[in-house]
Design brief:
The chain is globular. The two termini are about 30 Å apart. About 65% of the residues lie in helices and about 0% in strands. Helix 4 packs antiparallel against helix 5, helix 6 packs antiparallel against helix 10 and helix 7 crosses helix 8. It is built from 14 helices and two strands, in the order H-E-H-H-H-H-H-H-H-H-H-H-H-H-E-H. A two-stranded antiparallel sheet has the order 1-2.
Length: about 290
């Protein structure tokens, strides 16, 4: 597996833990930080609440297989993946707390995601959990691809908050194949991989839409032109979710691999433009 694992990753791309500090922590942001749109702002804000339970699920699924991994490079990547995911959680918790202070029901949103993932933990075997994680990591990586290749999806957003999402998108793309490669080398099958795709994606989209609509209703913003535009923002011809359909069908191909057709340029561009947010790593973190 070593040669194939290394060959498929674009040159210059390496899963790397970065300690971050964003301006939104000190300067704050508005409740409707995404161009003044309640729909877009609350959609992204509620999505942030998924990462505390979600990243833990991903880490646990991948680490459960570490004793079966023989490839030293993949073991090293697993460690960097876990550190990245842990730091994603830490940064989004800061964002969530600030949203809660603005009146967004963060706890309600997070409970919905947590119930779904707790149900999966209870009912899935370790390999099935890893299959679900691989499917959801494909979802987040393709979300990241959409984020970078369709800048109009971010137009008008507060740049302080956008920096958080751009960093997260870059690192999701960077480790897009980690869980998939672990799944493959530990004996994961095509059937299990495909079977978990539909359910995993559907449940996450269901929770995201329900959370968003409940938040909009509580704000008195549900039956508005902005909500109609928001539905198009997600499901229109050039919508965020609509744009995921090619990636969904790619995953069904027997010879699929997450790095196939991805050149890593979006990651390199983000790194070049956002170095100021990267902090020195303390000795205890580096250990």
């Amino acid at each position: 597996m070593t040669q194939a694992f290394q060959f498929r990753r674009p040159e210059g791309v390496q899963v790397t833990y970065r300690r971050m500090k964003f301006d939104f922590e000190d300067q704050g942001f508005e409740r409707y930080w995404h161009g003044g749109s309640p729909f877009r702002s609350l959609f992204w804000s509620q999505l942030s609440t998924a990462f505390d339970p979600g990243e833990k699920f991903f880490i646990d699924s991948a680490r459960a297989m570490r004793t079966q991994i023989q490839d030293p490079a993949l073991l090293e990547e697993l460690q960097a993946f876990c550190r990245q995911e842990g730091h994603h959680t830490a940064q989004h918790i800061k964002f969530d707390r600030m949203n809660a202070a603005l009146g967004v029901d963060v706890d309600m949103c997070q409970r919905r995601y947590k119930r779904i993932l707790d149900h999966a933990r209870k009912n899935l075997e370790p390999m099935e959990m890893l299959a679900a994680t691989s499917a959801l990591e494909h979802f987040t990586a393709c979300f990241a691809d959409q984020f970078f290749k369709t800048p109009e999806l971010s137009r008008g957003a507060d740049p302080k908050v956008l920096a958080l999402w751009a960093w997260h998108a870059a690192e999701e793309s960077e480790h897009r194949a980690t869980c998939y490669d672990i799944y493959k080398v530990t004996g994961g099958t095509y059937g299990h991989r495909v079977a978990t795709l539909i359910g995993s994606w559907a449940l996450i989209l269901y929770a995201a839409m329900l959370n968003t609509l409940i938040l909009l209703k509580r704000d008195g913003k549900l039956f508005t032109l902005d909500t109609l535009k928001g539905i198009a923002y997600l499901f229109g011809r050039k919508g965020l979710v609509t744009g995921l359909l090619p990636a969904f069908f790619d995953y069904l191909k027997p010879r699929f691999h997450p790095w196939k057709g991805i050149d890593g340029q979006a990651i390199a561009k983000w790194q070049a433009e956002n170095r100021r947010y990267v902090q020195a790593i303390p000795d205890q973190d580096a250990a």
